[in-house]
Structure formats: structure tokens, C-alpha cells
Amino acid sequence: MVMHSSPFAAKLGSYIDLSEPELLVLESLHARRKCYPAGRDLVLQGQPEQPAYILAEGWVCSYRLLAGGGRQIVDFQIPGDFLGLRSVLSRTAGQSVEPLTKVQASLINPQDLMDVFARNPRLGAAVLWAASRDDAMVVEHLVGIGRRNALERTAHLLLELGARLTLVGLGTKAGYDCPLSQYVLADALGLSAVHVNRVLRELREEGLCTFRNGRVDINDFDGLVQLADFDHDYLDHDGPLYQGVQAPRFAA
Asked: Which CATH code, of 2.40.160.90, 3.30.70.2190, 2.60.120.10, 3.30.2350.10, is assigned to 7-235?
């Protein structure tokens, strides 16, 4: 089995069994890698010709601003994820992308990306499948806000983040580092920060999980899954391009 050289390669490696030449191609996409500070948008909602990036280190959120100034976080991006891929394929960016921590990300030239897909159709198919999974997560978040209560949707998001981080080697079934504040979680969950605080306290008192000092510790994984009715099939780590490589799904 070929060792993955980056979180991006680890993510795509859950869809196809990457060859050495394909890993070298993925490595070449990181040629324009830079550090970016927290709080300064990388992609701006509604602006044309916005760039795309591959996130190598740090955490990012994508969000929509409302006319009244409110913010809805659509999703979080972690190492291995594309940032602003839709803005490359569309005329304008449908949402803003903001680093929540200091990040390292590689600027992607749209033409370079198209050239990679043309020369390496398996990589293009893997990226397409990863993008489809990202869309499935947004649908799941919509279901959570619309139909799950505050406790269930918070538990579901924490489990989803754990599954995604485990896929790229940054988490386990027992927990993961998480820099999200209660205010940021509130913007993602459609709750107030005070409500998020109460929910996290209830999860802790029930012995399910503890979120403290930038760390999520999952104390009762099965109980948390049952509470959230969490079925990770929508994450599709074993998609149709899967070719015998065991995805590190919640490896302890």
C-alpha cells in the first residue's frame, strides 16, 4: 500500500488506491502553499473569479451572510479539503471561506486543476466523488437544523467531525483536537451560544462526550451514536471507487 503524503492524498486515497505517479501529481498541487491568518476571508461570497485552495493545516469555515448581518456557517473544512472549489466551476462564489485558525493552504490555478483531471481521469473522478460527499454533508446539516433537536444535532456534528478527522489521521474513536468556539458552533447549529453551552454541559453530564480546552473526548461512542441516530453512510468513505484500501474509520 502506498503511503499518503498529505491529508489531501489520504482523503482521495479512501476512494481510489493511489499509485506513486498519482501521489506525485497530488504533491505538485501544493507548489503554491502559503500560511494565512485566522479571520481573513480567502473566498468572498458573491465575488467573481475567486481562487480555490487545498487546505493542508488548520481549520476553516464556509458561511453565508444574511442581509441583516447574521451568519450561517454552512460547513467546516479540515486538512485535506478543497476551499472554494465551487467558485472555480461557477461564475461567482456562493459563500465566503474564512480561516478559523492560522492555516496552510495551497492556491490552485483553475487551468492547472483541469489539466490534472485531463491527464489523470482517476484523480478527477476521486475529486468529483469527494465533492459529492461534501454536498451530502451540507444536506445532512440542513436535516439537522430542520428536524433534529439541539442535543441531537450537536452530537451529530461532533461525530461527523470525528469521522472526517479520522479519515485523514487527525482523530480517533476516542476524540480529536477541535478549535471551534461555542459562538462558532452556534453559527453552524442554528443555536445561541448560551444554548450550545447548555447542550455541551448535558452531553458531559450524561457521560457521552466532553468538549473542553480545544479537545473533544468521546466517553461513550455507542451512546453518542444512538443519541444522534448517526449513520455515517452519507460520508461514503467506501465509495464506488474504493479498491480494497481500508479507510481508517474511527480507528482506535
From this structure: 2.60.120.10
Identity of the residue numbered 93: A
Query: Which sign, positive or negative, has the C-alpha torsion 118, 26, 244, 222?
Result: negative
Q: What pLDDT, on the 0 to 100 scale, is given for residue 182?
A: 96
Residues 6+ apart with CB under 8 A from 146: none
> Exposed, middle or buried, 26 (CB in 10 Å: 0-12/13-18/19+)?
buried
Sign of CA dihedral 104, 106, 107, 108: negative
Spatial contact of 74 and 1, defined as CB atoms under 8 Å apart: no
Q: What is the pLDDT of residue 132?
A: 83
Greatest Cα pair distance in the chain: 54
Q: Which residues, including other chains, have CB under 8 Å from residue 133's CB and lie 6 or more apart?
A: 234, 235, 236, 239
Residue 100 CA from chain centroid, whole number: 13
Q: Determine the pLDDT at residue 65.
A: 86
Stretches in the chain below the pLDDT threshold 50: 1-3, 239-252
CA angle 252, 214, 65 (to 5 degrees): 115
Cell of 144: 439537522
Contact 43, 66 (CB under 8 A): no
**3-class DSSP state for residue 105?**
strand
Extended beta strands in 141-206, E state: 171-172, 175-177
Alpha-carbon span 86 to 118, nearest angstrom: 18
